[in-house]
Specification:
By secondary structure, this protein is an alpha/beta fold. It is built from 13 helices and 15 strands. The protein folds into 2 domains: about 130 residues, Aspartate Aminotransferase, domain 1 (Alpha-Beta Complex), CATH 3.90.1150; about 240 residues, Aspartate Aminotransferase, domain 2, CATH 3.40.640. The strands form 4 sheets. The chain has a 7-stranded mixed beta sheet with strand order 2-10-9-8-5-3-4, sandwiched between helices. Strands 6-7-11 form a 3-stranded antiparallel beta sheet. The protein has a 3-stranded antiparallel beta sheet with strand order 12-15-14, covered by helices on one side. Helix 10 packs parallel to helix 12. It is globular and about 60 Å long. About 50% of the residues are buried. It binds pyridoxal-5'-phosphate.
Length: about 375
């Protein structure tokens, strides 16, 4: 077996032991009060992390299954305005193209979203707005609350991917008017990959499409979840639900506010290291945008090769992420989501500092020391 690496990626992330052990149990029947209680625990905790009292379901499938469920149930044959400033915004646009009449509201990856273009598209009758709250590919946090207001003003549904913010950053689905919100299990929740959660507002239910998909039919999820015991329409990925329940109980025990504060501090420490190194952060933010609280994207200094840099870090036992698609070779990313604490982030920054140094980057100062100042 290969040596276990410390995954400092924007998902998947290391899982606490309690979460891993939950998956080693004997099979249980999913039509049982025992499973119903597991599902109910997940839903209860996830609702707090979503900031919602709306219906919420857990789907067997990765985050993208949740994105597709959202678009396929509410966007079929509709005019959809898709905000794109990174890879996952683009994914929501591509999914929307399959089901409705999708219009890209684009800006270069990692730059502020084009609110004027969005407003223009809403004036032309867009019925749905899609947004990625925390654009993982670029390390930028988009102004969800403001976009929720625009959607409401024009009576459009607001569909939000909160896959790397739920459980790691402030998400207020109800206060922001986010009608359909999605998260994934292997990101800030520190659960295994393979589950998605989707919340649905009453306003969205009123606009449910008439020809839903079969496996991802959210009305079927609603019907099954309303029974006693709570169920899913088809056999769920039971071992993953058992693990997600443990991850949710850990979140509940830590407390959402404390968990968010921990994430904020870790991201701040990571940014302090960048500043000390003299390495630029990749996103170009303005007053309405912020750097991500769960993943930090760095622009490569001139002359530093991505594969070489990350190979040095990997040799030290730590996996950090490169860029995706058009950002390949241009950026690297350090995830600080899930169960991460100062020892993991400090060793990651130390290995990264070593690699940058070794490859000839002229350090302004001590990044690890700067991170310690934030964390200490
Ligand atoms: C990871 C991620 C996804 C995709 O989730 P999968 O679990 O890989 O299907 C979607 N959106 C964002 C913002 C992500 O970070």
């Amino acid at each position: 077996m290969e040596k276990e690496l410390l995954l400092m990626l924007p998902g998947p992330v290391p899982m606490p032991e309690q979460v891993r052990l939950a998956m080693s149990r004997q099979a249980i029947n999913h039509r049982s009060t025992e499973f119903g209680a597991v599902y109910a625990d997940c839903v209860r905790v996830l609702k707090t992390a979503f900031g919602t009292t709306n219906d919420l379901f857990v789907i067997s499938g990765s985050g993208t299954a949740g994105m597709e469920a959202a678009v396929a149930n509410f966007g079929r044959d509709k005019e959809i305005a898709c905000i794109v400033n990174g890879k996952f915004g683009e994914r929501l646009f591509k999914i929307s193209q399959r089901y409705g009449r999708a219009h890209e509201i684009g800006s270069p990856w990692g730059t502020p979203v084009d609110l004027e273009a969005l407003e223009g598209r809403l004036e032309q009758g867009a019925e749905i707005v899609t947004l990625v709250h925390n654009e993982t590919s670029a390390g930028i946090k988009n102004p969800a609350e403001e976009i929720g207001k625009l959607a409401k003003k024009h009576d459009a549904l607001f569909l939000m991917d909160a896959i790397t913010s739920v459980g790691g950053d402030v998400v207020e689905a109800d206060a922001w008017g986010a009608d359909v919100v999605i998260t994934g299990s292997q990101k800030c929740l520190a659960a295994p990959a393979g589950l998605a959660a989707v919340s649905v507002s009453n306003r969205a239910w009123e606009r449910l499409c008439k020809n839903p998909p079969y496996y991802l039919d959210l009305a079927a999820y609603r019907k099954s979840a309303s029974g006693k015991p709570m169920e899913t329409p088809y056999t769920p990925a039971v071992p993953l639900f058992l693990a997600l329940r443990e991850a949710c109980l850990i979140l509940e025990e830590e407390g959402l506010a404390a968990r968010i504060a921990r994430h904020q501090k870790l991201a701040k420490a990571t940014r302090a290291a960048a500043e000390a190194w003299g390495v630029s952060l990749f996103p170009k933010i303005d007053a309405k945008h912020e750097y991500s609280t769960t993943v930090t994207a760095f622009a490569y200094p001139d002359g530093i090769k991505d594969d070489v840099m990350r190979a040095i870090v990997k040799k030290l036992g730590i996996l950090i992420a490169g860029g995706q698609d058009q950002l390949k070779g241009k950026i690297f990313r350090i995830g600080s989501m899930g169960a991460v604490s100062p020892p993991e982030i400090l060793s990651t920054l130390a290995a990264t500092q070593y690699a940058l140094n070794k490859l000839g980057h002229k350090m302004k100062g001590d990044g690890v020391g700067a991170a310690c100042e934030v964390l200490g």
